[in-house]
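[09:14] KT: can someone run the structure on this one? pasting the chain below
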Amino acid sequence: MSLLVVTGTGPRVGATVVTSAIAALAHADGRSVVVVKPAQTGAAADAPGDLSLVTALSGVTEVREFARFIDPVGPAAAARVSGRVPLDLARCAAPIAALGKDNDVVLVDGTGGVLVRYDEDKTTIASLAAGLTAPLIVVTGPGSGSPNATALTVEAITRRGLDCAGLVLGSWPNEPDLVARCTLADLSRLGVPLFGVLPDGAAGLSREDFLARARAGLAPRFGGTFDAATFTADATEPVSRS
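[09:31] RB: done, structure tokens below
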């Protein structure tokens, strides 16, 4: 069984899309996959959440959500403002680990970022990864603040003795500007493997097209064909003015 925690450097960097891409490749290759979203925020009880997107893009129907809060803030804050009991993330480790008995791949899609609080005891997705002894994939974006946010996230993971397996860019523009190209160059110097680059707008693709983009955009570790060295060299070549 392969267990992996996917976290972003912040909201809206494409972490759920990356989770969907990893799930799509594993599912297409005939492996049994389950995707877990410990806490969904920013969605009403009867509204589609992130796991609905995972199913739509990947075809994976074995999904688990442990808590949902309507307010679009971190899980601890969402529980606090709604007057509800926060999710006990520590108690989620055992049922998540148990899913590995019947599935080849278990993916955990975090909320917000690696140190976003799930309760008032400072429990985070990093705490869950520690309890599961699971590696983390960090999803980041192409903006100018990305190298700093990514470096801080990687540092937070490694200082806790956790395995930061690699990075994925979750929303690469079709026409990358100087900022995006320089960001990619800076990310390549962090000393963490780049495991993939998914295009901006991938969440709106059909399942067939999404699978093709996932295969082209993720590394062989996940069943894809992405080559980080080639992509980085091609994308960062024009990063200086003559």
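[09:33] KT: thanks! The domain at 2-130+160-236 is CATH 3.40.50.300 (Rossmann fold).
[09:34] RB: yep, looked fine to me
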